[in-house]
Amino acid sequence: MEDHMQTKSIEPYLNCSFECSCGRTHKSLFAHYIFEPGAIKKLPDLLAQLGYIRPYLISDTHTHEIAGHQAEEVLKGANIRFTSHILKSPNKGDLAADEHALGSIAMGNDKDADIIISVGTGTINDLGRYFSYITGRPFLLIATAPSMDGLVSGVAPLIFNNMKVTFPAQEPLALICDPEIMAAAPLKMLAAGAADILGKYNCLLDWKLSNIINDEYYCDTIADIMRTAVDQTMESTNGLASHDSRAVSVLTEALVLSGIAMDFSGNSRPASGAEHHQSHYWEMQFLFDRIPAVLHGTKVGIGTVLMLELYNKLAEMEKPDFSKIRENISCRLSMEVWEKEIHRCYRDGAEGIIQLEKKTKKNDSKGLLERLSVMEKRWDEIKALAKTAPKASEIYDVLEKMGAAKVPADVGICREYVYDSIRFGKELRDRYTILQLMWDIGELDEAAEKLVEKYCDET
Fold first, then answer.
1. 186-459: CATH homologous superfamily?
2. Cα 272–170–48 angle (5° rounding)?
3. Would you list the domain boundaries of the chain?
4. Mind listing the pLDDT tens digit for each residue in 374-428?
5. pLDDT at 174
6. C-alpha 326: how far from its chain's center?
7. Nearest residue to 173 via CA among 406, 356, 15
8. How many CB atoms lie under 10 A from the CB of residue 2?
9. CB count, 10 Å around CB of 108?
10. What is the pLDDT of residue 459?
11. Does Lipid metabolism count among this protein's keywords (predicted)?
12. What are the φ and ψ backbone dihedral angles of 340, each rounded to 5 degrees?
């Protein structure tokens, strides 16, 4: 009964299609959610039910030991032919989802395999579902930890040419989770999964903000799915530190709901905002400086605290003097100086950022003037939205209770990285967020200085 109750908020979205009040048709190919002890033993029957006979298994050193070896033994016992490719996990840090790892998977590929199976949750999941997408084969996931929110999403954030880029990917037909395996995951992975979901407090605000200012598509149904995931996660945080199985089950379902929300929207907008821009920027800097990787959700949690500080500031702000803002537009960074800053911050990835700006013109004065005009008319609505944001201190406290990283120094993110990520992290995506709004009204640089002063050590 408990397992059924645990999946009740997911069941309506399994293999579904429905006309939404937003005017779009939302579809999901995700059809099977197996969450029970010994779930991996059901793999042969599931493959038979789906009509596939030759899987290509992808894992890394850690996930193969946790669940990959068991999956192989189960397939052997059922006389199912398979190929297994194990990526070598680094001695320090986490495996990167980059072109090198993808190339390794491609070189180990079994061209006769008719389905791709990832054994793992974060990087292995992203790599597997993207490889599935580009090779035109279906995808199945065996999760090993509730550490990230893309369990069943149709996009994959990968590192390409030193840039974090979100690619279209194949959503899984099925997700297999053994609660005993999930609950046994290291606390840092449980906390990372919860922190990734807590970031939705900010990204939902960013999404609605863009809807107000840019008339960007926004769906209340999808936002409500995401809020359910956040509410469930808040319920689970107290039990995660003790690896409570019920808390881990609740968190896992929240992560699944997040992926469904992304799938319905066709992009990561319901689950990724300015807090993810911070995480992606820091991840790139770690790669450039050969610093061992930090779990994505861990960085998202820290970024969420910083970005909610901006919303809390906005909630208390008096209506800006828009006439003065317009008068001072000419005093902003010239394109030449901006490009120098982008080369300093993004290094080998700078040209990609510059080309994105030339295409989208996020910082162009014409677009800025148009947005300022909307802001001036709808300032009360914008401020009311900001007042719905939780206090940054509340999220900080939740992270602390879970034993999660709370400030940049907890995971080796230096002051310079933080200052630059707040000022220039918005350039990573053509996506309107609180960072762009603060830049629009000329408050971003000062906000960056204050946040660094508050949350970063002097060293």
1. Dehydroquinate synthase-like - alpha domain (1.20.1090.10)
2. 135
3. 31-185, 186-459
4. 999 999 999 999 999 999 999 999 999 999 999 999 999 999 999 999 999 999 9
5. 96
6. 35
7. 15
8. 10
9. 14
10. 55
11. yes
12. -65, -40
Model-level pTM greater than 0.70?
Answer: yes
What letter represents residue 343's amino acid?
A: H
pLDDT, the chain, mean:
94
Token pair 């809807």 is found at: 211
Instruction: From 404, 355, 115, 112, select the one nearest 241 (Cα to Cα).
Output: 404
Task: Return the CATH fold of 31-185.
Answer: Rossmann fold (3.40.50)
Please give the C-alpha separations between residue 440 and each of 39, 161, 280, 363, 384, in angstroms, as whole numbers: 51, 29, 22, 8, 18
Q: Give 292's pLDDT tier (boundaries 50, 70, 90).
A: confident
